[in-house]
Amino acid sequence: MTDSELCKLIQTDPEQGHKALYETYVKYVYAIIFRILREIGSPEDIEDCLVETFSDVILHLGSIEGGQYKSYIGQSARNRALNYYNVLRRQKEHTIPAEEIAEPSVLHVQEELEQKELRNQLLQRIKALGEPDATILIQKYYYGRKMSEIGKLVGLTANAAQVRCSRALKRLQKELADWR
Known about the structure:
Elements: H1 3-12, H2 14-37, H3 43-59, H4 69-93, H5 106-128, H6 133-142, H7 147-154, H8 158-179
């Protein structure tokens, strides 16, 4: 079917015209897309690109000048396939094969669990110091805040907060020495 015949059919019966357009150009479009995606894409990627190309073409049929479908469809297929190629290439660059991912060793997992338990114990000991000492230590050493900020938070001057922090650290050191 020629482009002029397709143009007339699309104007008189759009549904039949779209089917005829697809049947006329499906092999042409597939060849273009396959040539670009064959090294990087799966058959599903090629099929998706094909469907999206025809969807795009059908949406823009009215803007095709003089019913010159072949060149428009070919360019549309090429552009869509190149976009797919770029997306697939970026995905492959950022994908690590499963066999390259190291499984955590039992020793590593055990060490992590021990570290977590130590952190929890330390946090409990800090909280046992009471307020505002616990808040001061947590804000300074867990969140890295300045003494002026911490002082405002707990209602003390920066110097008073610093003195409380020093005393709380000494009490915590004493408790931890007894704990071990």
